[in-house]
Design goal:
This protein has 5 helices and 5 strands; from the N terminus they run βαβαβαβααβ. By secondary structure, it is α/β, with parallel strands linked by helices. It has a single domain, classed as HUPs (Rossmann fold, 3-Layer(aba) Sandwich). A 5-stranded parallel β-sheet has the order 3-2-1-4-5, with helices on both faces. Strand 1, helix 1 and strand 2 form a beta-alpha-beta unit. The protein is globular, with a radius of gyration of 14 Å. It starts with a strand and ends with a strand. This is Universal stress protein. Belongs to the universal stress protein A family. Pfam families: Usp (PF00582).
Length: about 140
């Protein structure tokens, strides 16, 4: 049913909590797991960039997640990309023929403005496959 599962992750608590759901689904269906982290394109108008989302931090995050899944007997591939998170997640899902995207929800959709701006909402609207949002 879910041959390929895409798990976009970042440094958030919600992404860490979604990892349990990812592990359960991947083990149950014997899915291929692809971990994705997106480094946002630098904004020239922004005074500083977030050090937690530097390419080095993202590489370390992906290695840590891969090790976490490995401890549970799950092999995971990793992809690191630069770009707009929502569009990049959907592009990668299309490239790898993902059958499911699983992602944590940061709860930004609690306000009308947050609902239209959240990565989760954009991915849900643009995704080429089903999206499972873990609250």
């Amino acid at each position: 049913m879910f041959k390929t599962v895409l798990f976009p992750l970042d440094q958030s608590r919600e992404a860490r909590e979604a990892a349990d759901v990812v592990a359960n689904i991947v083990q149950k269906y014997g899915s291929r797991l692809v971990l994705l982290s997106v480094v946002e394109e630098p904004n020239p108008d922004a005074p500083t960039t977030d050090p937690m989302m530097s390419p080095e931090a993202v590489a370390k995050l992906l290695q840590s997640a891969q090790a976490l899944f490995s401890q549970q007997g799950i092999q995971a591939e990793t992809i690191e990309r630069e770009g707009n998170p929502a569009f990049t997640i959907c592009d990668v899902a299309d490239e790898i023929n993902a059958n499911l995207i699983i992602m944590g929800c940061r709860g930004l959709g609690l306000t009308e403005e947050g609902a239209t701006d959240s990565v989760t909402t954009r991915v849900t609207n643009l995704s080429p496959c089903p999206v499972l949002i873990v609250p």
